Amino acid sequence: MSGSSEGSSSASGDADAADAGSADAGGTDTADTMRERAGENRVKLWLLLRADRLVVAAVLTLAVFVAFVAAAVAISPSLATKVGSSDPVETLFASMITAIVTGATLVVTIGQLVLTQENGPLGDQRDRMDDTLAVRDDIADLTGGPTPTDPAAFLDAILGAAAEHARDLRDSVEGQGDDGDGSSRDALRAEVDDLATGLTGNADAVRGQLDGAEFGSFDVVFAALNFDYGPKIGQIERIATEHDDALTDDERGLLDELKATVSLFGPAREHVKTLYFQWALIDLSRLILYAAVPALVVAGLMVTVVDAGTFPGSTLGVAHVTLAVGGAFAVALLPFSLFVSYLLRVLTLAKRTLAIGPLVLRDSE
């Protein structure tokens, strides 16, 4: 994905769009949004997930340049002195050429592995299509309409159906008369109202973030992360178990329908996330190959052309040769900076979505 499609349309404050939510099956309070669940500060979460990957790579490259120049000036004897008496530039950039070629080859291999997942005999492709259509039929039955083909609209349809089923359940429970002293129905009403309020609020907030989001940017995946479906499934199961005697047959049916709809969001989100991973890794491979060409040219020029007299003079006490070597080193590391910037997002996303289903994993790292 290019820098222009990185999804900067939604600010980092999107993570705060939904309120803190429900409790899981074990009674542990949990929040709906990614930032609240992770316990991360806004800047760190923005850097790991929301920031344009090309901007992150550029910042890393600039940091390498500044750190290199600062160290070269501070350490005695200075780099300019060493260039005049020995040949550290050739040694450094000869090694960089080997690293760039090896890294680019490895990236091509990774890209081939990603593409291999899409290859297969006709029978396997038919099975994949049949499985996909079967899931789409299930979603259409629960949502009461055709399943959208756009990833954002696809997730939005499931969330809309879940919110509608939650409201139907709440209306049914509130409209049903009491039996006996009514205490069991009062507890049921309170539980269902808490479930419906948390679920509809969270779903509506995420649907607002999905509105206008385009796949290829990170917006769709990030919005999906803000619907914490696991604890909601646990809460539905707890209501069904603890209030079984107070529930009517119709209410049990509505509860089962709500659970089925919320449960569908899990594999739907994982499917969209997997597609994003493949998309991102293919884009990463392409960008690294693009960056490898100027990196090789710069490294080659530093080996064959630059010596102590190529960049005479200094600016603000910093030798021009030091600035040139530092800049060339940063450019040569650009493919690695791109690799780091993309992997920061992919690995963070993978860690935050390890479990599928009503398992709540919390880690502050």
Gross morphology is elongated
Widest sheet: strand ordering: 1-2
Report the portion of residues in β strands: under 5%
The helix fraction, in percent, is over 70%
Query: How many strand elements?
Result: 2
What low-confidence regions span 5 or more consecutive residues with pLDDT below 50?
1-30
Secondary-structure-derived class: mainly alpha
Could you give a short account of the major beta sheet?
Answer: 2 strands, antiparallel
Along the chain, the helix and strand elements come as: HHHHHHHHHHHEEHH
Amino-to-carboxy terminus distance: 27 Å
Q: Write down the oligomeric state.
A: single chain
Contiguous helical run count: 13
pLDDT averaged residue by residue: 81
- Structural Rg: 27 Å
Overall description:
This protein has 365 residues and is mainly α. It is 70% helix and 1% strand. It has 13 helices and two strands, in the order H-H-H-H-H-H-H-H-H-H-H-E-E-H-H. Strands 1-2 form a two-stranded antiparallel ribbon. Helix 3 runs antiparallel to helix 12, helix 11 (249-304) crosses helix 12 (320-332) and helix 11 packs antiparallel against helix 13. The longest helix has 56 residues, at 249-304. It is elongated and about 95 Å long. The two termini are 27 Å apart. The relative contact order is 0.17. Residues 1-30 have low confidence and may be disordered.
